[in-house]
Amino acid sequence: MAFVTTAGSVRTKYSRDDKIQGVSLLVIVAVIAVTVFLPLLTIFLKSLQNRDGGFVGVANYLEYFQTPALVDSISNTLFVGVVTMVIVIAMAFVYAYALTRSCMPLKGFFRSIALVPLLAPSLLPAIALIYMFGNQGFMKWALFGYEIRGPIGIVISLTFWIFPHVVMILSTALSTSDGRLYEAAKVLGAGKIRTFFKVTLPAAKYGVMSACFVAFIYTITDFGACKVIGGWFNVLSLDIYKQVVGQQNFQLGAVVSVMMLLPVVITFAAQQLVQRRQTAQITPGSVPYNPKPNSRFDLIMLIYCIGVGIILMGILGTAAYASFVTFWPYNLSLSLQNYQFNLMDGGSWLSYRNSVVMSVYTAFIGTAVIFSAAYFIEKSRRFTGIRSVLNIFSIIPLATPGMVLGLGYLFYFNAPSNPLHFIYHTMAILVLANIVHYYTVPHLTATTALKQLDVEFESVAASLKVPFYRSFWHVTLPICLPAIINIWIYLFVTAITTVSAIVFLYGHDTVIAAVAVLNMDDAGDIAPAAAMGMMIVYTAAGVRILHWLIANFIEKRTQKWRLSKEYGH
Amino acid sequence: MTQENSYLQIRFLTKKFGTFEALKEVSLSVNQSELVCLLGPSGCGKTTVLRCIAGLESPTSGEIIQDGADVAPLPPDQRDFGIVFQSYALFPNLTVDGNLAFGLRNRKITKSAISERVEELTRMVGLEGHGDKYPGQLSGGQQQRVALARALAPSPSLLLLDEPLSALDAKVRQHLRREILDLQRKIGITTILVTHDQEEALTMGDRIVVMDHGVIAQIGTPQQIYELPESPFVADFIGEMNFLRGRLQDSNLVEVGNLTFSHESSTGSAQQGDDVNLCIRPEDIVLTNKSNMGEQLNTVAATVRDTEFLGSIYRIRLAFENKGDTEFVAQVSPANMRSLVLQSGAQVQVQFPIDRVRVYRRDT
To answer: Does A462 sit within 8 Å of B77, measured CB to CB?
Structure first.
């Protein structure tokens, strides 16, 4: 035995895997810097400059606050944000309650109905509402003389458009409850109402708060619906658009962007805090809650869901119907005249083709990039510091409104000094903006899927001297295939329905369908706008159905091992 | 143990997580073909030692000499070992054969050689005919064998087992213990097994390393560890032990209350007059009826408090007759139980055989 009294500290060597993973993580950092931080920083700098790029401090902000028309937008935006939030939460809570806590029939059908608005851009419900309640609307009487263009229209459009997001969050929150608590409440003699307030609500509390934040953020950052139906009612997203596209006042546009970013960031931070406080509701011993049939309650819930379903489908149906009507309201015969996009000012079949191409690129490239990045962040063996920082970075896009991101890209990539200047106005920047804008949700989906894998897979592979990319390809990827397919469809549908970030970035050859809807509506061609909006809905719905078929097929082919007995313990 | 025979030497291994010292200068040597058990309560650092040997954890300082070379700075894929985790970490989307072949591909081995080796491994762990099944279709014990065979597939020189049996139920566990042991003996692979289960360590280990709070409490054969525990921690952690508070009268006499007991064990650092614990295992205490014991050494009168039937043995809770508050436990076989009459309140003579008594200094 050698007589060593103390041993020196160990300097661990990096393996080939470590080196590849380390370089990949550095690349991710660099890409985030270029595609998120620098564009956002440019907005902030721009807001402190004059037209010639000279530094003027807060002068632009002073100008902003001295212009009442602009300052009013802040309160207008917050107002529609709060009103929409209250209405959509109330409606969606009862709906989600019916889906999870009643024994009404056709639950699966109503669940699907609630998700239909996801297939439409937010422009579309606004167009439908104009057909319903506008000057020549067939339901104008229902507004008792109030104008649909303005806050009423914005609130209804966004309630429609945000509804599915909120129903999903709330039904998840309501379905993860412990049946034992309800049995205990019953044994202790608590009534239904008392049980609702003492058991149901506390358990769903964080879900409700989370849904509130989402509804609020989506409303105050929306552009499409506000553009179509906002009328005289100014909101922040419209101001950004008007300043930048209308008046070419980039500095003031930057100031408004910062104004929009503030409430979003505050709300987002609050949501993160709330989520952190949420503890696991479901423990291993939990018993799922099974609602018991109650014919009166179930009937009320069914009637409610039918009512909401009629409203949702009524709005979408109006848009669909209007798109086929030859000349509303004078010639109600049905034709495909409104789908002759090449004859319209501001619309073309090119824009539709571009949309599909952009969405396909976004879905494929985005899925590959986001899943790989999530893998490196989650499964690298070392570099814990940089990995946890990257995990925080990857939720930043969720807190960045599309308008702000788009404007940041305009400033950053349009600068002649930027070596990436050449991608401005191209398909590449549209795809990039979409991937960055919608990065967070797929990242969380991927991370959740990866976390469900045994943490020792990588250790086993290393002990067998198998490089990480081989176990990634043969084990990680096949197991995560269902999650990957879900990421793909999420990116496709969001890309084809989005307009906010793109509105500053498209070029003459890269105009997309959602922008065409906007431009045709602007030019007064509202029926063709509805038709183009419906093209987006048909495509999104078609791809969703295709996705469902392919996912089923792939699951049967590659997930055989899942069908066998439960794995593990 | 001789230097030539030693395959793995750990020298002054220290691992810090922030300010927390998970391992404090742990030194240990493992011989060729030996099976060493790392045993200790959760959080004692036993798994950290294993992960440092595997390279899955980077030690803060120290050396890990494997087959003559210091592997401490090396990443796991540059070391020579196979590992079985508590969760098995079988690839659920690959069949048994796929799992076994996983570490063989990528090594410039021909396809036919791989399938030959896979077949050999399946036979070795008794899973013939299960090659096409997915892990989810196997029982826990079968999954465990697949994990073992997969670890052994590339013929490593060192086998690391991290709580390999703790996810199984008692019957399967006993059976697999035997199987792992037979396999280990047959191929003669140096093995380190981490466990918190003392029975597992006692039945499987050539030697046992008992760990506590990041340091090694004792190294020895199962018999040494059980019969000559070097510290009260080891005495208490392995098996059951009676601790009787007393005072060292002189080097081989301990005073417990107004009774005195002789002993032959080392007293460590305890000096005359120090507070000590007099220790004896329940099964070492000899119980007899009052009448037929004379003035034998270390024999005193006691009263039965209560008895507990555990199937193959009885546990008897007793108290010294003239010092009522000191309780201790003895074990009696059913056969002895029938000859003694031991209902609660009964008077018996208890003998603490002098070679079975151990004395430890008691820190206040």
So the answer is: yes
